[in-house]
């Protein structure tokens, strides 16, 4: 019976190395080069970061989600999950290990649907960690509902001309290229009339109007671009995948992206648990340590329980992705992980913040950022409500309605059936009395 929760010793050694490496070598980058992860390396940062990337490569941990043909190890999603929960502690770690969103997902689409020319031009430098990419799908008037998308590409001879607005195109301002999802045929349902284009960010007409910041970031100095595509002309060869195939391609990207976020969230939530435990063991008030107070013990137990459930679920989902090699077959579980993720991170970070008292709500501790991160997780890659609909629909596929007036578990009817089935014994029982 194959049912094993152990990591093989060889890979565990690598994980132990990664754990120490992230804590000692990578987490300091978060403190000195905050928000710089997606800025192409200048001479100084290159000097510090290239040797770290090299160490990761030597350990065979660079881009472990990719197969060997793309420069990775072909370790698959389960091993990536175990690694990602270590990387989740640090904003810089995914960059140093070559597995940062949104580039991983964007690389997956190009690897899957790109022509040899597109792969040579965009994929290789992306995989080498030398350039960044942006995924430009959401529009100001609608993100969760693609039927609201208005940005159009119209064929003009050998070219396509793109016009419209996109919102929240993360990292567009530092990206070398955008993957833009646009309507190419407005006369068919949006799922069949939408296509993807690879557009270099310096193409004339790509106008970044604002760089929207998240809460706490300076106004108009964030990383989520509002872009006006103003008569952006690209050759037909810029089409990524077949015309009208954007939604199929997007699923390739989003399935992986969502579960990778969940893997990293385990690491971040574990960091909050670690901080909470250290604090409650260290702080004494009203005659005892915080750790000895029953309510605080409840915080610890609830956090441990939430995280343990979430972690096992994410690992199991990663295992299924490796087993079936088909995101569609694991859609229900990926969506479930996506639903649970914001709540787990929010609840644990909130409790950790609370036990730190006033210090917890300052900008000298990372709790608010974590809680804000939880809110982001409930929106990026689709709102929780939409994923709940997906899960519910998939769950209901395994059920049938009943024609009977009563539910099939209605006890009087089942009792009658049970009595009929066991009538011989029941008669004997009566006879024995
Ligand atoms: C940090 C961050 C990074 C992002 N990066 C990118 C990116 O790189 N590229 C990109 O294209 N997009 C990106 N997005 C956009 C993201 O995909 C959208 O925010 C998301 O799809 C929701 O779209 P919306 O914001 O337009 O909200 P809306 O679609 O307006 O939804 C608003 C709210 O309405 C409710 N709602 C919506 N639909 C339903 C429904 N069917 N049933 C019940 N309730 C519903 C939910 O409460 C939802 O939160 C990013 C978002 C964030 C926060």
Task: Indicate the proportion of strand residues.
Answer: 5-15%
Determine the CATH superfamily of the largest domain: Butyryl-CoA Dehydrogenase, subunit A, domain 3
Assign the CATH topology of the largest domain. Answer: Butyryl-CoA Dehydrogenase, subunit A, domain 3
Shape: globular
* Distance N to C terminus: 47 Å
Query: How many strand units?
Result: 10
What kind of sheet is the major sheet? 4 strands, mixed
Which ligands are bound?
Answer: flavin-adenine dinucleotide
Order of the strands making up the biggest sheet: 1-4-5-8
Mean pLDDT: 94
Which CATH class of the largest domain is shown?
A: Mainly Alpha
Number of domains: 4
Question: Helix share of residues?
Answer: 40-55%
Instruction: Determine the number of helices (DSSP H or I, runs of at least 4 residues).
Output: 14
Radius of gyration, CA atoms, in whole angstroms: 26 Å
Structural class assignment: alpha+beta
Low-confidence stretches: none
The CATH architecture of the largest domain is Up-down Bundle
Query: Secondary-structure element sequence?
Result: HHHHHHEEEEEEEEHEEHHHHHHH
Structural notes for this entry:
With 433 residues, the chain is an alpha+beta fold. It folds into 4 domains: 9-114, Acyl-CoA dehydrogenase/oxidase, N-terminal domain (Butyryl-Coa Dehydrogenase, subunit A, domain 1); 133-240, Beta Barrel (Butyryl-CoA Dehydrogenase, subunit A, domain 2); 248-396, Butyryl-CoA Dehydrogenase, subunit A, domain 3; 404-433, no CATH class. 51% of the residues lie in helices and 14% in strands. The chain has 14 helices and 10 strands. A 4-stranded mixed beta sheet has the order 1-4-5-8, with helices on one face. A 4-stranded antiparallel beta sheet has the order 2-3-7-6, with no helix packed on it. A two-stranded antiparallel ribbon has the order 9-10. Helix 3 (76-87) runs antiparallel to helix 8 (294-324). The two termini are 47 Å apart. The model has no long low-confidence stretch (mean pLDDT 94). Bound molecules: flavin-adenine dinucleotide (FAD).
């Amino acid at each position: 019976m194959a049912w094993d929760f152990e990591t093989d010793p060889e890979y565990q050694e690598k994980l132990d190395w990664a754990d120490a490496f992230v804590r000692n070598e990578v987490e300091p980058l978060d403190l000195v080069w905050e928000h710089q992860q997606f800025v192409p390396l200048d001479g100084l940062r290159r000097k510090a970061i290239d040797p770290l990337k090299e160490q990761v490569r030597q350990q065979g941990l660079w881009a472990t989600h990719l197969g060997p043909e793309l420069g990775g190890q072909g370790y698959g999603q389960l091993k990536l999950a175990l690694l990602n929960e270590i990387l989740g502690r640090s904003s810089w770690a995914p960059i140093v290990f070559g597995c940062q969103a949104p580039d991983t997902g964007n690389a997956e689409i190009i690897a899957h649907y790109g022509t040899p020319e597109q792969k040579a031009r965009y994929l290789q430098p992306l995989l080498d960690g030398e350039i960044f990419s942006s995924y430009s799908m959401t529009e100001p008037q609608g993100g969760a509902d693609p039927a609201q998308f208005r940005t159009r590409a119209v064929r003009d001879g050998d070219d396509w001309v793109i016009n419209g607005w996109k919102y929240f195109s993360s990292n567009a301002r530092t990206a070398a290229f955008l993957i833009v999802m646009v309507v190419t045929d407005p006369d068919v349902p949006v799922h069949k009339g939408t296509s993807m284009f690879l557009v270099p960010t310096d193409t004339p007409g790509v106008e970044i109007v604002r760089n929207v910041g998240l809460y706490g970031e300076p106004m108009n100095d964030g990383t989520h671009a509002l872009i006006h595509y103003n008569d952006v002309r690209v050759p037909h060869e810029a089409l990524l995948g077949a015309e009208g195939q954007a939604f199929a391609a997007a699923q390739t990207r989003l399935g992986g992206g969502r579960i990778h976020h969940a893997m990293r969230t385990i690491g971040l939530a574990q960091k909050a648990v670690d901080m909470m435990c250290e604090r409650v063991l260290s702080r004494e008030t009203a005659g005892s340590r915080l750790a000895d107070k029953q309510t605080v013990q409840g915080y610890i137990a609830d956090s441990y329980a939430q995280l343990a459930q979430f972690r096992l679920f994410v690992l199991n989902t990663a295992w299924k992705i490796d087993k079936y090699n088909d995101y569609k077959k694991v859609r229900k579980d990926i969506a479930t992980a996506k639903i649970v993720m914001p709540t787990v991170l929010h609840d644990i970070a909130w409790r950790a913040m609370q036990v730190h008292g006033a210090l917890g709500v300052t900008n000298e501790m990372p709790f608010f950022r974590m809680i804000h991160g939880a809110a982001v997780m409930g929106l990026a890659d689709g709102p929780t409500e939409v994923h709940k609909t997906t899960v519910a629909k998939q769950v209901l596929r395994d059920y049938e309605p009943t024609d009977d007036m009563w539910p099939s578990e209605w006890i009087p009817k089942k009792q009658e059936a049970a009595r009929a089935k066991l009538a011989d014994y029941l008669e004997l029982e009566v006879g024995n009395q």
